Structures are given as structure tokens and as C-alpha cells.
Amino acid sequence: MEKQQARIIRPAKKLTEQEQQELMNWLDEMQAWAKSVGLTEQDVDDSIKAVRQRKRQSQRQSA
Q1: What digits encode the pLDDT tens for the residues 53-62?
Q2: What number of other Cβ atoms are within 10 A of residue 34's Cβ?
Q3: Domain boundaries defined on the chain
Q4: Is the pTM of this model over 0.85?
């Protein structure tokens, strides 16, 4: 099995103060929505884990 190198992802640009505030507002809205539908941190962790597993499986199949 071939070991993959880590990719360093750098932001395309630095966010302005206004963009940072908009992002924080959006995150607050998303957290409120998640709470309103009953999502927990464990639900989010499980979803991320499932997506990563599917991604790994598809990479193996295409290799």
C-alpha cells in the first residue's frame, strides 16, 4: 500500500473583519438549527466518520 503525503491547505486570502463576522453569524445560525432538530456532537462526529469511510472505500476501488 502506498503512503499518501499530507497536503497543506492554505487559505486563498485573509478574511476581512466583516467576512469573519458573517462567518461567525452563519456558524451561530447553523448551531441553533442543529440544536433545534436535536443533533448532538456525537451525531456530527458519526457523520464525519461515515463520510471519511466512504471516501476511503471509493479511493481504494479506483486505485
Answers
A1: 999 998 888 8
A2: 14
A3: 39-63
A4: no
